[in-house]
Sequence to fold (211 residues):
Amino acid sequence: MKKKATVIIITMILLLSLGIFVSEAALNDDDPLISLSYLNMVIDELKDSFSQDILDQDDAISLVKEDMDKAKTDIEDLNTEIETLTDSIAENNNSTTSPSEGLVIVELFATEDLMNNSGKSETDTGTNRIHIGTNLIGDAGTEIILRYSSSSTNAITSDLGGLSDITAGVDLANGEAIPKNHLLIIPRSDGRGVSVNEYAIFMVRGSYTVN
Fold:
C-alpha cells in the first residue's frame, strides 16, 4: 500500500512538471509549441499573401508598360511635329518671302546680269535684302517706300483696288508710276505691289514676295 501511494505521488509530480513545462513553452516566444494544423494554416495564409502580392505586382507592371507605350507614342508624335516644323522652316528659308518684321532695305534687280554687273550677291536675310525679279508683292498691311529707281517703277493693283499712297492721300491705279519717298500701304493680300524695269531700292516693313 505504501509502495502504491509512492508511485501515485511520483506520477502526480511528473504530470505537474509536464504541465508546467508545456505552459512555459507555450508562452516562450523563443521556442513555441505549435500544432501541424496551425503550421499548415500559416503556410496557406503566406501562400495566399504571396499570390496576391504577385498579382498586385503584375498589375503594377502592366500599368507601367501602358505608360511607357503611351510615352513612346507621344515621343513619336512629337518627333513627327518637329520634322514637319523643320521642313516648314527650311521651305521658308528657301523662299523669297520675308516674314513680318522690322524695316528692311530691299534692292530689286530685274535680271541676274544687272545684279552681277553691280558686284552684289542675292540674299534674303539681314537688314539689306537683294533679290532678282521684277515684282515686289506685299501682304496686307505691308508698307513700301521707293527710295531709288534707275528706270520706271509702277503700281501693281487688283480688281478690288489700287495701292494706298498715304503721303499723297490717293489710290494709285494699275501701271501708274510710283513716286519716290511716298509711303505706300498694301490694303489686301491679293497680289498688289510694285514692278521694276531695271533696278530699284525700297524700304519695306512687313512681309513680301519677289517674283
About this structure: Residues 20-28, 94-100 have pLDDT under 50 and may be disordered.
